[in-house]
Design brief:
By secondary structure, the chain is an alpha/beta fold. Helices cover 34% and strands 33% of the residues. Helix 2 links the parallel strand 4 and strand 5. Helix 1 packs parallel to helix 2. The longest helix is centred in the middle third of the chain and has 19 residues.
Amino acid sequence: MSTTHADVAGRGAVGEPAAGFTVTGPLAAVVTLTARGPLDAAAVDRFTTAADAALQRAAGEAGCVVVDLTAVTYLAMEALRQLVIFARACRLADVQLRMFASPVARRKIVLAGLEESLPLEGGRDDGGLLR
């Protein structure tokens, strides 16, 4: 089983670092898609490209994709929509999906009512938003 690594880079808004995405694996039957920085509307196309690559690798060799959003500083609704589309594509391809999110991303997912659609793992803290 070969291990591959790909980065999908771009530019952020003036004065802001760009969102970054890395796809690694398969390692031990897992492909990891790591997102970092702001997942704003400008980053959605790059996220989609990285997610497509991750799903293609997982469907071909691994059977599991881990989406690591722990370094995401902002999650736009456009990016959230793509996450839901990606989760659906994983189900259709019979690829297991696991997600880990930063507090910022987790709050957005919870507030949007998508925690059932997006399989978040790790802490279940809503940041005090739902208390």
